[in-house]
Amino acid sequence: MNETFLATYKISSQVENLPDMILLNKIEQYASGFSNFMSTHGGTTFNNGLYRLHAVQDIMRWTKLIEEEFTNYKGRAICFGYDWLGRHFALDKNRIENEQMLILLLEPGAGEVMQIPVDFKNFHNEELVEYQNEALASEFYMEWLNTKGDSPSHSQCIGYKVPLFLNGSDTVENLEISDMEVYWSICGQTLNANS
Fold first, then answer.
1. How many whole angstroms separate alpha carbon 194 and alpha carbon 42?
2. CA separation (Å) from 45 to 49, 75, 155?
3. How far is residue 71 from each of residues 47, 116, 182, 192, 193, measured CA to CA in Å?
4. 3-class SS at 178?
5. Nearest Cα to 14, choosing from 48, 43, 36, 37?
6. DSSP strand pairing (11-14 vs 44-46)
7. How far apart are CA 188 and CA 94, in angstroms?
8. Which residue in 20, 55, 93, 133 is deepest, having the highest Cβ count within 10 Å?
């Protein structure tokens, strides 16, 4: 079902993935292909850290962590993946088209949530393939790798030292490797304190 994505994105590594078929099958009805793709590729890092999928056992934990920072999305999002900047991609329970949930991009460094008008299958086979730079800031990632040379581990991200919502610069000099959970927590606390 995600052949186009898998032809473009190469597996770099994979952490242990413990598929919870009850959870996956509940989501499947509103995200065609989710169950098979996540049971097979959950916990996988693609293209040297550019894009990663949560291990199935981490989906609900990350969904709860995201809801703590973006409280307006509590009960609305189901996180399934993230990019090198620690931005999370989630299914949106409030936006359904042709019986399929559409995608959200939750950006801790900018303090923003963006709506992506595609479903799970088309997000992987079209959005991430045809619009890789727009979806994942792949050119910025290459700039980071060429300058700093370090790709993030599965539990890390390349976060902003000074978040964009505090007028930090969107440059490689303002980036550093961070534990992703710590980065989300710090950005969330700072964002919520300033709102």
1. 35
2. 6, 27, 10
3. 31, 19, 18, 9, 13
4. strand
5. 43
6. antiparallel
7. 22
8. 55
pLDDT tens digits, one per residue of 168-195? 999 999 999 999 999 999 988 887 776 6
The answer to whether 13 and 44 have CB atoms below 8 angstroms apart is yes
Token code pair at residue 195: 């709102």
- Compute the residue count for the chain: 195
pLDDT tens track for 35-63: 999 999 999 999 999 999 999 999 999 99
DSSP code for 171: S
**H-state helical runs in the chain:** 3-8, 21-28, 34-41, 59-69, 120-122, 128-130, 132-136, 138-147, 180-193
How far is Cα 82 from Cα 106, in angstroms, rounded to an integer? 9
Joined together, the tokens standing for residue 15 give 């952490």
Q: CB atoms < 10 A from the CB of 98, how many? A: 7
Residue 86: closest CA among 113, 124, 129, 52: 52
Nearest to 81 by CA among 113, 109, 110, 120: 120
* Lookup result for tokens 């995600």: 2
Phi, psi of 75 (to 5 degrees): 75, 5
∠ Cα 35 43 115 (to 5°): 65
